Amino acid sequence: MTFPTLAIHGAAQTVTGSCFEMAAGRHHVLVDCGLFQGSRTLEALNHEPFAFDPSALDAVVLTHAHLDHSGLLPRLVSEGFRGPIWCTAATQDLLGEMLPDAARIQESEADRRNRRGDRADEPPVEPLYTSADAERALELLLPIEIEEEFEAAPGFAARLWNAGHILGSASIELRAGGVRTLFSGDLGPSQKSFHLDPTGPQGIDHVLCESTYGDRDRTALTIEQRRSLLETEVKQALALGGNLVIPVFALERTQELLLDFAQLLNSGRLAHTRVFIDSPLASRATEVFRRHKRELEDMGSGEVFDHPAFHYVESVEASMGINRLSGAVILSASGMCEAGRIRHHLRFNLPRQDSTILFVGFQARGSLGRTILDGASRVRISGRDVAVRARIRRIDSYSAHADRSELLEWVQAREPILGSLFLTHGEAEAIDMLRQGLEQRIASIVVPEIGERYELPLGEPARRIATGRVDLRPALRRDWQNDYADFTVNLKRKLERIESGERRAEAVRLMRRVLDDYAAHKDRKHQPS
Asked: Which residues of 15-29 are buried (b: 16+ CB within 10 A; e: fewer)?
């Protein structure tokens, strides 16, 4: 008997790039098609050829609209995919804003890099995809209701289950060849604003479960306790006289913060506070939330998204003007500080001792946000060295991801798992901790690598039939470009600590010699023997 197979194309021992391919007979379904985000080495994977033929895919089923799950759809379409893209109606509406915005960023970033003086002698950078590609991808979206059974592709029965992560998010159940496979997608925590707790079926053959926070338990807080934490951080930050800068994800995190700010303002606990939402995408995503507000819980009383204290910033000029202010709260994307307007707010506010940077979301290894959060004294932003003098703060309770205990509970609620449990969408340490919490309950736990392929038998453990890409293992850790940025931003200061000009010159000569020796070694390796 021929069983379906599962290929791992992303989100394996890393938290981004979600992409899984199921095949049954001649038919192929992709679950998610997301961007890799984080270090330059990791992001370079977005430009590699797909490990499959996009034109041979029958369908895509999406868990949700975050770009690490959907952001490569325009490229998929540009390379020949023409099938349906199944998702919830809310995800369809959000992607109507997210994908065109992502395409504009790809185009503008390529243009910006091509205009940089230090790249004048290098080949031009091409955008990953264009706005036209994004529009073609949107034309393929087909909405489906939660828990409604449908045929995703010939031989693939499917059902979406509430994942409780963001607006429109879903876990995906696929049934092919009599085998039931469940993809968790990203799972939300308990005490999550807007959404009910995650659900799902029991008695699944194979389960793929995310592991983002598999190594930590957050302090259990009610929504009101979380608002009190935010209130304290805001008051302490503004008492210093500077700005409070909050890197945010345009989708969901921004709207959660606006909900809490609105309730604090409406109750008089944060009087005379100006909140700037400096992300056109966040503004448009908020409009989608307005349209779906009947699906949202915990909205409280009074005005929420259109509060008079909220200032939605559209133009670049207005965005730059915020940096002339003091005593403002600035919500700006992107959440990991890798692109967008947040970078110029960081450039202006990081050197200010009276400013505060408050992180409220996950920071992937290799991202600028992670570097700042880990205590860097200097960082490099858009080619400039920036000293870090601002207060760096963090609130964990805004996470849209389940923590370790909640992930354990979700997996246990799916039991019995008749075949294998795959732990995906997490860094190695998080996956290992989650695995340790489950190995007494689940007989077959798989920690896959990108590039691996598995046969999924009925009621038996998965069997690996193709090995992964060992060449990608370094890309999933802190890469050389992170080390280079850290080295260069501190180089001048370290040289100045050397007591004489002669010894400084000697240090520079030694560094050059080391680089020349490595380059010469590489040349010798490639010479014919």
From this structure: bbbbbbbbbbeebbb
Q: In angstroms, how far is CA 31 from the centroid of its own chain?
A: 16
Structural contact between residues 90 and 66, judged by C-beta atoms closer than 8 angstroms: no
Query: Among 144, 187, 181, 203, which residue's Cα sits nearest to residue 8?
Result: 181
Maximum CA extent, the chain: 78
Residue 502 CA, chain-centre distance (Å), reads 47
Residues 209/415, Cβ–Cβ less than 8 Å: no
Angle at CA 137, nearest 5°, toward 136 and 142? Answer: 115
What tokens does 165 get? 């992560």
> How many Å apart are CA 269 and CA 291, to the nearest integer?
28
C-beta neighbour count of 523 within 10 angstroms? 9
The strand ranges marked E within 411-528 are 421-424, 445-446, 453-455, 463-466
Q: Read off φ and ψ for residue 33, nearest 5 degrees.
A: -155, 80
CB atoms within 10 A of CB 502: 9
Break the chain down into helix, strand, coil percent, rounded to 5: 40, 20, 45
List of E strands, 486-525: none
Query: Counting every residue, how long is the chain?
Result: 529
Question: How many alpha carbons lie under 13 Å from residue 189 in its C-beta half-sphere?
Answer: 24
Tens of pLDDT along the chain (529 residues) come to 689 999 999 999 999 999 999 999 999 999 999 999 877 788 889 999 999 999 999 999 999 999 999 999 999 999 999 999 999 999 999 999 999 999 998 998 888 888 887 778 888 889 999 999 999 999 999 999 999 999 999 999 999 999 999 999 999 999 999 999 999 999 999 888 899 999 999 999 999 999 999 999 988 888 899 999 999 999 999 999 999 999 999 999 999 999 999 999 999 999 889 999 999 999 999 999 999 988 898 887 667 899 999 999 999 999 999 988 999 999 999 899 988 899 999 999 999 999 999 999 888 777 899 999 999 999 999 888 999 999 999 998 888 899 999 999 999 999 999 999 999 999 999 999 999 999 999 999 999 999 999 999 999 999 999 999 988 877 676 555 556 656 666 677 778 888 888 888 888 888 888 888 887 765 555 555 5
What the block records as the tokens of 417 is 């798992």
Ramachandran category for residue 473: left, alpha or beta (phi over 0 → left; psi -120 to 50 → alpha): alpha
Among residues 310, 270, 268, the alpha carbon closest in space to that of 290 is found at 310
Rg of the chain over Cα atoms, rounded to whole angstroms, equals 24
Q: Which of 231, 297, 283 is closest to 255 using CA atoms?
A: 283
Give burial (CB, 10 Å; 0-12/13-18/19+) of 229.
middle
The answer to whether 16 and 38 have CB atoms below 8 angstroms apart is yes
* Distance separating alpha carbons of residues 283 and 301, to the nearest angstrom: 21
How many C-beta atoms surround the C-beta of residue 467 within 10 A? 10
Q: Specify whether the CB–CB gap between 197 and 410 falls below 8 A.
A: no
78 by DSSP, 3-state: which?
helix
